[in-house]
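Sample A.
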Amino acid sequence: MQFFDAPFELESELEQAIVNASPVLFGKSRVFLPIKRRIGEKGKVQNIPDGYLIDLSSAREPRLFVVEIELAIHDPLKHIAVQILEFSLSFETSQRQIKNILKTNLAANAEAWAKCQKYVSDNNYDNIDVFLERITDDGSKFNALVIIDELDDDLERVLRSRFRFPVETLTFKRYRDKSGQAIYQFEPFLGELDQIDESDKIIADKVDISEVDTVVVPAQEDGFIATFLGENCWYAIRIHASMLSRIKYLATYRVAPESAITHLAKVHSIEPWRDSNKYIVIFEGPAEALKTRIPLVPKGKVKAPQNLRYTSLKKLQAAKNLDEAF
């Protein structure tokens, strides 16, 4: 069966498709609330976000993302960049207002309310009000999420480099077959934290984001020798905006026939890679060989990494194989 590119004509179509796909798009540990309510103090910057994403994937660091949904045809570089900046300014003066908006809409959504209540109970919050204050108060770091049908390189570069707060991006595209049946193409939000089996099913909860301090990158042998060992760095890789400040180590998974994580380097800095949306990770010194290599398990729970994966040094040090490394 063939599917053809079928761009969204209206922003409302994209918004509804995101709502329909939200369980897969955002995963079990997040709650998406498509709320359009004005925020900000009267007489100051005011805005209407397209929604909020409550991230419950970490027991220690629950987060709130202000969501902006846009079509690429709406001059996204100027429009979205301005919107995100204004959202951040409105957020600073609207914590109590946003808390009340979230509580009201959670109370009207039994499934979302139950998920948040379970998180509150499991993580020893006194009640849901205390939890909502935690993700909206003055000490909370502003996080933004932009969902767009076509992500322009210039827009992604601006969103990653021009703000002091993290801005995550997701691309969400639509295709149709000749009968009109639609399918959607997207990468799940922070999907690199999932354990995925050979049938592409998530088999475990995400690694707790608060524990992430390491990235694992796949490497061909020539690149491993020339760059990882020869230049004490690795490039050009994509790292989520909200993960950049967490990364302290980089490990390499050497592809077949080695099929194992074998070396680890301490990170000196992470810098933009040339004129792109990727990064170069510069090591403090030469990478060191692990005392015990971490091999792929044939037909195991975890696939051989094809792209960057997040984990922790603690997990790597305790892992006997790749199934235990993530």
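Sample B.
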Amino acid sequence: MKKDYLLLHLSVFIAGFTGVLGRLITLDSAILVWWRMAAAAVLMFLYLRFTETHGRASLQRYKFRDILQMGGVGMLLCLHWVFFYASIKASNVSIGVVCFSLVGFFTALFEPIINKHKFSGREFLFSLLTILGIYLIFQFDSRYRLGIALGVISSALYALFAIANQRVGKHYEAKNMLLWEMVGGLIGLTCLIPLYNMFIPVGRLYPVGMDYPYLAFMVVVCTIGLCLLQIIVLQKIPAFTVNLTYNLEPVYSIILSMFIFSEYKELNFSFCIGIALIIISVVLQTWSEIRKRKVKA
């Protein structure tokens, strides 16, 4: 149990870098995600192809139906990333990552419907603390309406991804599932980019200069490493707990953005209270989940 929660918080810490990297890399959000998934898919294939697990090849064979399931989950992740980076590029890192905190709210709404279980008023109340925290931090500044709207869509998509990932991930090995998620997202995004380009010109299609090291770090650490941790964690910890814990991601991202992009305007009383509410919601849910499991035991 303790190990599972330590892995969860390690994944949140790593996730804190993704928003900053999204701002540093100069590609359009859709093209950035395409390169991220393409590189991750190639590296995961090579890793699985040339390594062994318990004396047999790590790369497993699956039926086409299974590949479609894993690829569909990857498409949800792909769309989340596109809207997440679009939110950051339309506003700033702080807006994008704090709107991501709404994942807990959307999970509290979606999970009872998808998994067909009783609605939890307690989980919904914990999520309302996060919403209040977001309001206090930004007070929905009109200059950032587009960024906030994109961020809200991004958080809803991630909630759907986490729930689907938990359901589908129980049936497949984590590393192989990550490979097919990347492949599924890559194929889906490749098909959507021409349509996307009709409404939002993507501009340059390839990285330049410092985009390469930033993209490499994003792929190796913040994609492969992070997704493997998430898949493992979601197999043992409820999706709502995972998503609500990810509300800590803005804390790391905002602190980094303060130094890198000089986003100092959030350093005020409302900012401190808002972040405190987000942290309190995470602590309350984690304590509640641990207490509930002890009672069941």
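B remarks: The longest strand covers residues 52-53. The chain has a mean pLDDT of 84.
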